[in-house]
Structures are given as structure tokens and as C-alpha cells.
Amino acid sequence: MSHSPSSSRRFFSLLIFVLTIVKTCSSSCSSSSSTSFHCPPFNASPPFPFSTSPGCGHPNFQIQCSSPRSTISIKNLTFSILHYSSLSSSLTLSPHLDSNQNNCSSLRFSSSSPNRFIDLTGSPFRVSDSSCSRLSLLRPCSPLTLPNCSRCPHDCKLLKNPGRILHGCESTHGSLSEQGCQGDLLSFLQDFLTRFGFEVEWDSSQDPYFPKCKDCRVKNGLCGFNTTHPNQDFICYSSQRESTTTKTTVNNHVAVLCLIFALTCLLLAISVAVAIFRSRKASFLSSVNEEDPAALFLRRHRSAALLPPVFTFEELQTATNKFDPKRKIGDGGFGSVYLAQLPDGNLLAVKFLHHHHGDTEHCKAFSMKSFCNEILILSSIDHPNLVRLHGYCSDPRGLLLVHDYVANGTLADHLHGRRSKMTWRVRLDIALQTALAMEYLHLSITPPVVHRDITSSNIFVERDMRIKVGDFGLSRLLVYSETTVSSGSSSDYVCTGPQGTPGYLDPDYHRSFRLTEKSDVYSYGVVLMELVSGMKAVDQRREKRDMALAELFVSKLQMGLLDQVVDPLLAGGEEEDEGGVAAVAELAFRCVAVDKDDRPDAKEIVGELRRIKSRTRLAEDDVARC
């Protein structure tokens, strides 16, 4: 069923896109044909004295269009317009509250008002009797709990007389009963004003602009004012009508053309939708009973009993807190890694493979096979020094792998970061454990697995300083994607494009495209050089010829200048440590030999490191006895 949901999504996405174009076109035409602009809550252009256009209406009552409510300013107070009644010429307003009140209530509105109450005296607006009546019925429940009246006198006054918040609505409760009292009167009053507001009515006789507008409208003029000098007298735009009529005629023609264009867009959208629906219908019906391609591929190559558990996308989404960026613990070329906590409390690492934007069908198939190959490889290995796969998820929303979570960082963090510095004995143990993991991959699995990305960043350190090699994002491409052929040398090889991390990539593999286990040996040799020197595999701060650690290390060793590349933390140590450092440096030199046949295999590397470790231990015992 992998094709049908994708086809349906593409179909509906295209349909919505085309319909959006049609809607946008229609909206543009309707706005062009309209002779005026309006905004909520007005269904048409607001009548005088209100206006949204500069120069029109009353200069003191300009409406500011905003979402979700338009606003108006009266006596330096800003209100949201909840409702407008053209029949009663009234507005329902909600005041803008001040949120910074120093632990007092938010029922304050403007610093210019000394009493912090709403006073519309001096404007042509007055609070309606219905709003005052509602406020007169409000009262707190007994016993009355007063706030800190010295800090919040405004709140105390409102508790005693809620009607004071609107000038002209003051009243006393007298002998009103306690029925319907409010336990938290201030919060109730704040919520009431925000949600329902209060109604104001205007009286044209209270402002000289209003009667003059009536005379203007009798003459079929438009009421307005001079925007440059708004305090000057009212202006009647009597000649505006003719230009408006002409503009309306032109706009009507534009509206007709836009309507024709919108209908054409709609017909085109329907035609494209029908064509896509018919082309996808057959593939949808044929794929109804198909399985998930990942499950089908995995079962074809391995018994279901040997495969790791399957997680649902929702389970991993919950475990990672919806893939919270704060839980991201790593980010590479193949995917981002998140810390996940399962319901049983276990901490695991979830790798979310990156989506490739603009993928072709070939790229999608390649990504799916790579994902499956990594599952097949990781489910076939079991070694204490290799990261273990706990499960996977194949979902249209993403491909995810669930691994061990190693909490103590990477070897690169300990060598080059700010973590605690390591002794030579710890470094030698890490070198041996990494070699044991490589030996297991090359010699204990059939067919052998080539990791292709053995780097200090892919060696994870446990709290007891034991290690696990991880990130098989490149090794998964080897076993099932290419065909093994016999070579003339002692090793088999695979012809595949070179992939790996700069500084660790085998030069012979890069030149010949022939991948063998000895390519891992080269990368491992660079890791040994990092352990000995404490330097990065590639460092652009070094001179150009010494930028790659392998070239710098080999040249110093050939000139007998090993001491110049040994980590200063190791220099000047005990003689047995110095001997071990030189032996490991010589082993690293052999691992990066130009000719692959001159490099030791993993088994030989393990044996040599064990001998070095044994000699170091004997030397320590001799020192202890002395």
C-alpha cells in the first residue's frame, strides 16, 4: 500500500494548490471591484463617523484593521471592536488591558488616566444603560477578601463597587442578596470585559462634525477631513461621486474579466484532477493488498524470527517528545539522532534518516534498500564492542533505527574536546577493543562486513571507558547492493563508489574503486595515530602538507621524529609506556601502507596489540616489584 497514499496525497495537494490560485484570483477581483475597504466586524464600509481610510469619516475615530479584531482609540484608550449595530448606532468594545501590574489585577488601561478607570466624558460616546445595569449586579461573595490596598488601591475600589470601572455606572449594592455573587470578582470582571465587552452609544449633538456631515450627505457628498490638518473644519467631498461612479464602472469590467479567468482556472483544475485520479486509480487498486516494501525486502533475506522488533512511528514520536530538537544528540549525513525514553524507562538512541527533497523514484528505492541493508547487517551481529540494533520503524513519515544509547560521548570528544584526558593504558584498551570489533566484522560474519567509516567520531565511549563502534550508514551499502568478484590479490573486492570521512578514506580505494577489508584497516590506522598523537585526522590549522594526520605522522616516523607527534600528555611517561607508544605507532604506520597487501589484517592487529599490552603489564609488574 506504499504507492496509493503517496498518490492520493499528491493528487489532493495539487488540487488544493490550483483551488488556492482560483480563490486568490477571485479575491483580487472582488477587492478591485469594490469601491471601499472594510474589516471585521463591519460587513461593509463602516458608516460615518467611523472610517478605515485616511481623510474619510471623523479624524478622532479612525478604525485600525487588525486580526482578529479591529481597534479604535477613544480618549487615548485603545479598544477592540467586538460588534457594531447599525440600527442602534452602538459599538461593543473590549478594552486592552495592561499586563504589567506588579502583582495587582490586569484591570488597568492607560497611564494617562489617574484613576485607572474608563472615562469617556468629553467624547460623543456614553456607556449604554444595559452595560451599566450588568455591572451594578456584580458583587463579591462574603466574607470580602481585600488585596493589599496600599499597593493595589484600584483593586480594592473595584471590589467595593465594580461599576466604577466605567465612569457613569457607579452604584451601591444596597440590600442586594448574595445570590449570584462572584468568589473572584476581579478575574470575573476581567474575563467579562475581554470576552463580552461593554456597549457604548454615540450622540451626534456632542460633536460639531456630526451635524455638518448630515448636511453633506443630503447633498450626496462624502464626509471627511484634511489629513494634514485634522483639527481644521469638516470637509465635504461633493465632487467625489462622479469619480467614484467612473471608477466603479472600470472596476466592474475588471471584475467580469477576473470572473472569466477564475472560471477558466477552475475548469483547468478539474481537468487536471480528473486526469491524475484516473492515472493513479489503477496503481492504487493493484497496490491495495501489497505489503510495506521494507517488510517484504527484509523477510525475503531473513527469517522474521531473526529480525529486530518493529516500533510504530507514534511510539518513537512519543519516546522522543515529538523529535524535540532539545533531544538531538547527533546529526550526520545520513540522519539526525535523538535521545528516546521508552515506557519501561530504558534510554535508547533513535536515528531518523533524512528525507531527500525532490527524490526521484530511483532515489527513493535506493534509500529504502540502504535502510533495509543496515537492518540486515546490524541484526546479524552480536559483539560487546558494536552498537546493537533494538528495532526499527518503516513508515511513510520517515525511516527510523533504534540503537544503544552511549552516554559518555565519542572518542573524538575525549581526544579533542573538553572531556577528561585519557591515560596511555586507557587508550591502548580502546585500540584493542576497536580492533576486536573490526576482527568480528571481517572474520566472524559471512559474508564479511566492511564498516567503511571507522573514525574517532563513530567510536562511542561508555562510562567505564569501554567502547562501542557504531554508525553503519555506509557499511550497509556493501553486502546486498553490489556483487562480489574475485580479484588477483589475496582478498576479494567490491567495485563501488568511494564513500567515507575525509582523512580516514583509503587512498587506494579512492583511486581504484575497489573496496576490501583492508580499507577498514587504513581507517583504523588513522584512529591509532589519533590515540598516539591526540591530533585530529584533518586539521586546516596545520600547514597544507601536514593537514592530513596520516601524511604528517608517516613523514615524522620515517625521519625518526616520533616524539614530535606524540601527545604531550604521554610524553615523559614511564619507559614501559614509551615503548608501548612506539610499538603502536609502528603498527599504525603498517596499517596505512600504500599497498593494501602490505597492511596487516584485523586478526594480526589484535594479536600485536595483545602482545604490546602484555609487555606493558609485565613492565608495570617489574616496576612494582622494584
Provide a concise account of the structure shown.
The chain crosses the membrane at residues 254-277. The chain is an alpha+beta fold and 626 residues long.
Could you explain how this protein is built, in words?
The protein is of the alpha+beta class and 626 residues long. It folds into 4 domains: 1-48 and 208-285; 71-206, no CATH class; 291-405, Phosphorylase Kinase, domain 1 (2-Layer Sandwich), CATH 3.30.200.20; 409-626, Orthogonal Bundle (Transferase(Phosphotransferase), domain 1). Helix content is 40%, strand content 12%. The chain has 16 helices and 17 strands. It has a 5-stranded antiparallel sheet. A 5-stranded antiparallel sheet has the order 8-9-10-12-11, sandwiched between helices. It is elongated and about 110 Å long. The chain starts with a helix and ends with a helix. The model is unreliable at 21-36, 239-243, 285-289 and 479-490 (pLDDT under 50).
Give the spatial strand order of the biggest sheet: 1-2-3-5-4
**Large-scale geometry:** elongated
Count all strands and give the number. Answer: 17
Average pLDDT for all residues: 77
SSE topology sketch:
Elements: H1 3-33, E1 71-74, E2 77-85, E3 90-95, E4 125-127, H2 129-136, H3 153-160, H4 185-195, E5 198-202, H5 209-218, E6 222-224, E7 235-237, H6 240-286, H7 293-301, H8 313-319, E8 328-331, E9 335-341, E10 347-353, H9 361-379, E11 389-395, E12 398-404, H10 411-416, H11 424-443, E13 459-461, E14 467-469, E15 484-485, E16 493-495, H12 507-512, E17 514-515, H13 517-533, H14 549-558, H15 575-591, H16 602-625
Antiparallel strand pairs: 1-2, 2-3, 3-5, 4-5, 6-7, 8-9, 9-10, 10-12, 11-12, 13-14, 15-16, 16-17
Helix pairs in contact: 1-6, 7-9, 11-13, 11-16, 13-15, 15-16
